[in-house]
Target: CstA N-terminal domain-containing protein
Amino acid sequence: MLFGLGYCFYASFIAHKIYSIQEIKDQVPAVEFEDGIDFVPTKKEILFGHHFTSIAGAAPIIGPCIAAYWGWLPALIWIVFGTIFMGAVHDFGALVISVREKGKTIADITGTIINKRVRTMFLIFVMMLSWLVLAVFAMAIAGLFVSIPSAVLPVNIEILLALIMGYILYLKKIDALIPSITALVLLYIFVYLGSLYPVSFEPLGLNQSSQTTLWIVLLFIYSGIASLLPVWLLLQPRDFINSHQLIFGLGIIFIGIAIAQPAVDAPMIRTAGEGIPNLFPLLFVTVACGAISGFHGLVASGTTSKQISNIRDTKLIGYGSMVGEGTLALASLIAAVAGISLVSQCNLPSVGTVSDLNWHIYYDTWANAATN
Model:
């Protein structure tokens, strides 16, 4: 409810009184520099899906689960109010500024406002950050493909579905509703087929380490090719399909919580325990995506600003997408402090097989929580 109020009232206040996006008819860079590659005027619904899933990755899921170690209240307050008054405002502002600066990145804007030396330093920082993010994500996805080979087929089929959908939407000018629903249904069918026909490099005689390395190489090749393609051909439709999955999944999670009504196992606040780190300032570092993240400014200025067809859409795409990520972080927190009690049996690295899992077992100590 607070997220909805923040979007309806606070975001509208910022849009009207601070950015004046309703009163000023800005010439957006997507129209001014349209080239069919990076500068592509896009419907706000599709661009919302593209931006939303670009910022909402693993971090808003992992961060709140770690922050649950300190109890449910600190993370809840930070996620809700951090999203409304900081994270969403930051993303909204970064997007508006980039649109009004003709689609320039944050690094280029710093060069204009401050000096060229600062721009160079910022670009070096962005390059190093991008390397780090690519390395972490490549390791994570490669590890996923090796440990769960049933995931390989649906993940790669989505690329093909996205290419077909991009062709249908932008060259055939067909409405997005039917193709997106069809793609989502087909994707879930291939999730099932993936469980029947797992894809693995093990028959080639490769050990687990070699398989991971091979997948990392293939993922980097894919990333390089994807970065060269027109944004409407792969990135937009792929993320649009992903947004349907994410929204559908969030809906199922909250419906499940409403039906099961699990008891909250976690304490309100935890400040004492074996090896417990300080709540402040580590909470704000632990839950970045899901409350406020500077990385979102790179996404907003690097790609999204070049696809805005009307500056008034920045409210939905900038502020609204961050509210969506905050909702994802909230769902993760609820799962960590309450939903964990619904697990009847599991195997934890710290204690072995557990027949009745709860928060106190999982988060017994900081070391055990980190191991689990």
User: Anything to note?
Assistant: The two ends are 33 Å apart (CA to CA). The mean pLDDT is 89. Strands lie at 346-348, 352-354. The chain has two domains: 2-337, 338-372.
